[in-house]
Amino acid sequence: MKKFLLSVCALLSMVGAQAQDVVTHAVARDFNVNQAQIIQTSGDKKYYNTTDVSAIDLDQATGCITVNLGTGTDVFNGSVSGIVFTKKLSNAQGVQIIDAQGWLESAFVKFADYAGATTYHVYVKGGKYADFTRIDDQLIRSYGTYNRADAMGLKAGEYALKVVPVIDDTEVEAGANVVSGLVVRNYNRDGYAHHQATAGIGAYNNDGTLKSDARVLYVSKANAKTVTLEMQVGSNKYETRTGIQSIIQAYEKGVETRPLAIRIIGLLKMDDMPTLGSSSIGLQVKGKGQNMNLTIEGVGSDATFHGFGVLVRACRYVELRNLGVMMHEEDGISFDTDNEHVWGHNLDIFYGRNHGGDKAKGDGSFDVKGTFYCTVSDNHFWDSGKCNLNSNDDEVDYVTYRHNWYDHSDSRHPRVRKSKHLHVYNNYFDGNAKYGVGATTGSCIFVEKNYFRNCKYPMLISKQGSDIHNGVGSAADTKGTFSSEDGGIIKAYDNFMTGQKSFEPYVAGHTTYSKHFDAYVVENRGDQVPAEVVTLQGGTGYNNFDTDADFYTYTPTDTQDVPAVVTGWYGAGRCEHGDFQYTFNNATEDANYDVILDLSNKLEAYISSLVKIYGDMGAVTADPDPTPDPTPDPEPQEGNIICTFDGSPSNSMFTVSSTTAYGDGKITYDGTYLKKGVKLDSKGAICFTPQKDYNMILVLATAKSGRDVKLNDVKTTVSGTENTAGAYYELQPIALTSGTTYTILKGSAESLVMMIKLVEVNP
């Protein structure tokens, strides 16, 4: 059967969806019988009792799966990603299983109360767990009419969960039950956040397991103000911090890098929280440029921030996932200022507070400002007004927007300024009253394989095409949608549109549409935009970044499958699509950009059904079977050494003085983008002691005029080479002696040291 499943998966990687499925004989999930589970590409599942199935046939040519039953046949035309057979519960007298499913790097089981039980122990088996391994008690909760347990940090695979009732501190094995066949998938890590990253983003490895030595902190309304955790605040200094905001604030000292997963349980409202770091947004996550290895994630389907959002600033390797955000004061999520390698995904983002005008639905839902190497993916935006601002005239670049569900959201999907490397793909634009992607201020955007359903203007370029032909007011209106900003340029490939008011592609040689166009549409992904194609206002051409050899590797979803995948079981938003549901009336809401009062009232009145958490909310836990990071960030002391200074030294051999500041150099060296470097002014200094003889190569940013430095008070006299495209100046090698302590200071003029390379003399 495993070979059959693998053959199905391999075949379906080559065969797309064909004709419509014909499914009329599937039954409900039943844990008391053996069942075949058909998993569709959307993540949805169909179940068949094995006693009813005579055969399951695979057509190798088409990928068609036929389920043959005594009562007829069901046909899946190229829409199946896997088949799993699940055994019935072995213990009819044990804990009653209500539901159990695998999701993204997690699996859950819902079960009824067991007579006399005071608590429960839940075990997981599969993946890295060869035997049943107990999960943290905090992951087991009561919702009054049922209990639920979530196993987290799972790599892709098939899992089993075992529920054991506990009476008088003793496990009742006779009451235990095991549910199997739970299919877990990995989160999709395609996108710029992981491009050139040296490890997984956040507290997790790229395979979904916790990083080695990761700590796990559980936060609910019961302990958000009182939870404690030891945090590093100096080179050899540690403090016990109290409250979630104070714990996170310790990262501002710039030295705490131990992986930490903060797991949110249930509903957190403003009154439940300590004083928050951002008065306008809420919970502030702020670092000092170090790799923070921090994940803030929800447990299950109901983790929610109500009345506040999250501000991420000066962070690297930070992840937000599986959370709901509603009725926030300003932005829901804001990646704001000096962030790199950050990732926000599988979030449900609802209305913010009504402040009237263009903030009637709150301010930005998920804005990205001052950020590089970022992915915004798999999020569900519920009737947002201003969805995704990309740059408020600040520097933002290397950002991916993919597999988001823009569910009746109005505009800014995203609204882009300046960014030269912006990838928007596989998003579901679902009834958008104003516009989809907006390009301004010299930006370059690749818009690929998106599905636009009743999106008024799928793509707009400021001051040309649909933006001034139809965008605001009458046909004679020339103001445009984007405050008369210069245009940015869009390359579009293989997008599907239906129900749009206007889309004007570029037409070579045409009097109007060679100037007034919404995008340059290509027939093949690798086609480049010609140099003569430029925006009407600003004269911006497309840089063809998407065809460069160093563009990241990714696997896009076929365009016609985007709605099913994005809205499917493993799709956008929280686990199980969250605990808050609202159905939009397309007939009235596709074109409506006003607040839906009924939705707003329901969000304001939202309450949690969580009754009890079985575990100790004062405890800090660790992974019972930690997995080393498969892609660690080494600090070699032998062989060649490279140290960058993108907010802090990347190698522990090097130290900077306490008075040293960092400055924006923004260079690209050997395909790697580095934003910050050490500012060698009157206060700046870099010290190190090599343990071997090396030749040292200094890489300086051209953003400052300095082209030499002082090495142990002697001004360097070697020449260098300027790389204009990379914006750096590289000095010729300087000989260093083993065991000697070196101090690098300001030379003839202030400089920015972006990188130091030590090349071993006698390797």
UniProtKB/TrEMBL annotation:
<keyword id="KW-0119">Carbohydrate metabolism</keyword>
<dbReference type="GO" id="GO:0000272">
    <property type="term" value="P:polysaccharide catabolic process"/>
</dbReference>
<dbReference type="Pfam" id="PF18283">
    <property type="entry name" value="CBM77"/>
</dbReference>
<dbReference type="GO" id="GO:0005576">
    <property type="term" value="C:extracellular region"/>
</dbReference>
<comment type="similarity">
    <text>Belongs to the polysaccharide lyase 1 family.</text>
</comment>
<dbReference type="Pfam" id="PF00544">
    <property type="entry name" value="Pectate_lyase_4"/>
</dbReference>
<dbReference type="InterPro" id="IPR012334">
    <property type="entry name" value="Pectin_lyas_fold"/>
</dbReference>
<protein>
    <submittedName>
        <fullName>Pectate lyase</fullName>
    </submittedName>
</protein>
<keyword id="KW-0624">Polysaccharide degradation</keyword>
<dbReference type="InterPro" id="IPR002022">
    <property type="entry name" value="Pec_lyase"/>
</dbReference>
<keyword id="KW-0732">Signal</keyword>
<keyword id="KW-0964">Secreted</keyword>
<feature type="domain" description="Pectate lyase">
    <location>
        <begin position="259"/>
        <end position="458"/>
    </location>
</feature>
<dbReference type="GO" id="GO:0030570">
    <property type="term" value="F:pectate lyase activity"/>
</dbReference>
<dbReference type="InterPro" id="IPR011050">
    <property type="entry name" value="Pectin_lyase_fold/virulence"/>
</dbReference>
<feature type="signal peptide">
    <location>
        <begin position="1"/>
        <end position="19"/>
    </location>
</feature>
<keyword id="KW-0456">Lyase</keyword>
<dbReference type="InterPro" id="IPR041253">
    <property type="entry name" value="CBM77"/>
</dbReference>
<dbReference type="InterPro" id="IPR045032">
    <property type="entry name" value="PEL"/>
</dbReference>
